[in-house]
Design brief:
alpha/beta; Rossmann fold; 2 domains; 10 helices
Length: about 240
């Protein structure tokens, strides 16, 4: 579904990612592991069209997308759920959700059905649908950010650090929800520092260091890799 081929991206003179190669097949959950500043978010920004590579290509279903604007990429089926959620705090939960459905704004029945599906996945959002988004707890805000992304009916969802700042029990619930979203047909590319939780649900992963991918493999292989365990899993 998604191919990054020898992708390099700069901020000014600084090269943030160097010759990155990533493949995501339809139906997979793929995780990008690495410390803050390792290049995960830059990779997401590049896939989403917010950064343009100075080298290499990004392909969605064999179609070049690395020079397309972000709105065109969303229409082709890629949506990003940002690390800091980017909600509209004074707007209601449902108004935030409807913003995610903008590309389908003329398809009222489709929006209604998708809204029903998201509320089924996250019942607490239905209960609080009239409340301002800013009044929600951290976990509920993360649910809303994911729900809003789902309103565009993506083929591929980019999830940037969905567990950050959340209590362990909420993290567990969040990853169960991600598994359910994937089971229902959405391919997932996940950037995460909680390696144990991420690898527990992922098919495969890539490990970043200083803008380079230094290790890749199935989740089983990464769990068994001693260096990965010491650096990211703590065992």
């Amino acid at each position: 579904m998604l191919d990054l081929k020898n992708v390099s991206v700069k901020y000014g003179n600084f090269t943030a990612i160097k010759d990155i190669n990533i493949r995501v097949d339809k139906g997979e959950i793929v995780v990008l592991l690495g410390a803050n500043g390792a290049g995960k978010s830059t990779t997401f920004r590049t896939i989403s069209g917010l950064k343009t590579p100075f080298k290499g290509n990004v392909l969605l279903e064999d179609d070049l997308i690395d020079n397309k604007p972000p709105d065109k990429i969303v229409k082709q089926g890629i949506v990003q759920c940002a690390e800091d959620r980017k909600l509209f705090p004074e707007m209601s939960v449902q108004e935030n959700m409807m913003m995610g459905a903008y590309i389908h704004r003329k398809k009222k029945n489709k929006i209604k059905q998708t809204l029903k599906e998201v509320y089924k996945l996250f019942p607490v959002l239905y209960e609080k649908r009239k409340n301002p988004a800013g009044s929600l707890s951290g976990g509920q805000q993360q649910m809303l950010a994911i729900g809003r992304a789902l309103m565009s009916k993506p083929k591929l969802m980019l999830l940037d650090e969905p567990s950050i700042g959340l209590a362990p029990l909420i993290v567990e619930q969040m990853f169960e929800s991600i598994k359910q979203i994937n089971k229902e047909g959405t391919t997932i590319l996940l950037a995460e520092q909680n390696a144990h939780a991420a690898l527990s649900i992922a098919d495969k992963g890539y490990v970043y260091e200083n803008g380079n991918i230094v290790v890749e493999g199935s989740s089983k292989e990464l769990f068994a890799n001693e260096e990965v365990r010491k650096a990211y899993i703590g065992a």
